[in-house]
Amino acid sequence: MKLLIVLIAFSLLIVLIVFQEQISCFSLTKPASPGYYQDGDFVIGGIFSLRVTAGDTRSRFGFKDTIYIPEYVYVDLTKHYQHILAMVFAIEKINKDTNILFNMSLGFYLFNVDFIDMKAVESSMALLSGQTPPVPNYSCRPEKTDKLVAVIGGISTGISTRISQVLSLYNVPQISYAPFDQSLGTGVQLQSPYQFPVYTTALYQGIIQLLLYFTWVWVGLVVPDDVRGELFLRDITEEMNNHGLCVAFAEKVPEFPAKDTVDRELFMERFTLTHVIVAFGDTYSLLRFVYNIFCNTPFGNVWITTSDWDITTLPFQQNLGYTYFGGGLSFSVHMDEILGFKDFLRRVQPRKYPQDIFIQDVWSNLFECPYLDKDWIRELSQCEQNGNLSTRPLHLWDMNTSPSSYKIHAAVYAIAQALHEELSLIVEGDLLNKGVPRAPLPWKLHPFLQNGQLGRSTNEETVVNKEVSATKLDIFNYQSLQSSTKAQVKVGEFVFESHSVQHFSLNDELITWGEHHSQIWINASNVLKISIQISRGISVSLKLQHFCPMKILWELFSSPWPLVFLPFQL
């Protein structure tokens, strides 16, 4: 009798434990940041950023009741949807090749976190618990969580760090497609994300060669107000000084949506008097700066930047964007074309991917479908299902593969290769027929990822692919074509092998400078001569080369004698 009572009590305890676990996993009925899931024998998580919003206004992991406050969307970054498509495309290709994963398949679980840290944490936990909203330390959907092998994300250092703080606790590999940041991985997390190779030395030298080519010796610098910005300022200033080039000013941009503390008068003065600006940062970190440019309306600047800052992606009219940034020159690491990707993009349509929860929102912006904006809530209408991405203008979409998409595509293949290596060991040991789980534990992929082209070290020399002996940078010009369409046109390239072996080539006849640029200073000769006549009859001729002309002019302006400028002798 006692034994029966004990068995009944034990059974009730088991039921209560199971019931409590079910309550923990399923009582949170309000979804938060739903993901785009496709099943497979192995699942790769993806964390992307498709919009800039006012902030995270939703639940915090279901610990208390939530009041839904709709998000206000500042900017729809429609081009970033290509990042998701690059991952889907790579997985579809891998699944068609039965040799890579031994006739097994890849799936994915994708999230949009905008640029909000809390969303990145929440989505990382959702990958581990198998549902949204996530439940910490619960595997609510083991059919999903047991298949997770790695995660790709995010787009910035801040987002990548938040993802890593969660995934590192479970030793899940993470590949970041953000611009390389040596501060990433120096925190308290157990494992830092894998990062792609960095080519800062080549970039610095390429910028220097471009400045020297046009004899642009008085240059302003714009960087985000973070560690990457500080390092860039330090290194590029040193290189400029070594070549007799001068830093007119350094503008540090607070990350959006931080409070704008810009001195408007000083801002206008800087960008009106300094024609050449080197901007280092990415689309999001410089968003506040773009707003300031449009509010203060300086004209005639030539912008030198990198592909991380897409100056064509602006929350304003296309022609207005070209007015401010047309003629800009951008450096991009040379990338081979991803075979078949453009054809894949042309075939993408909402009806082809009905499970894609992001495509309708993107489509409404790409094809300007009408939607209601009631009480800050976007209610999408039914968009044209037969639209073709190749017809969209440059500020909304680019059929060329972006650097981020290229990284994401490569990251999928790096994970697939690591899986192949791990599965090869299992197949050789005939362990698949002995009941060994078919999905390797995520941490087992680390040795294979570390031996590949990706690495965690913050030392540039140990991160780069050692098979690459030279770095090639393409130089693009943002211009308006005769058809009034906007395009990024390749106008040159820079190949860096060492400080003593560099190859710079530029076809300046292909460059269009935009409608507000002055040809007088753009087409200056290698040596600029300025003649200044002082009213007392003293004539001064200055040969400005390899020193800062503005400093001398400032001293002359400070002179008690009135100055009269004679015409330039070019």
UniProtKB/TrEMBL annotation:
It is a multi-pass membrane protein. Keywords: Glycoprotein, Membrane, Receptor, Signal, Transmembrane, Transmembrane helix. Residues 1-20 form the signal peptide. One of its GO terms (cellular component) is membrane. It comes from the Eukaryota. Residues 85-422 form the Receptor ligand binding region domain. It is found in: Membrane. GO terms for molecular function: G protein-coupled receptor activity. InterPro entries: ANF_lig-bd_rcpt, GPCR_3, GPCR_3_Ca_sens_rcpt-rel, Peripla_BP_I. PANTHER family: CALCIUM-SENSING RECEPTOR-RELATED (PTHR24061), VOMERONASAL 2, RECEPTOR 19-RELATED (PTHR24061:SF536). This is Parathyroid cell calcium-sensing receptor. It comes from Rattus norvegicus (Rat). The lineage of its organism: Eukaryota, Metazoa, Chordata, Craniata, Vertebrata.
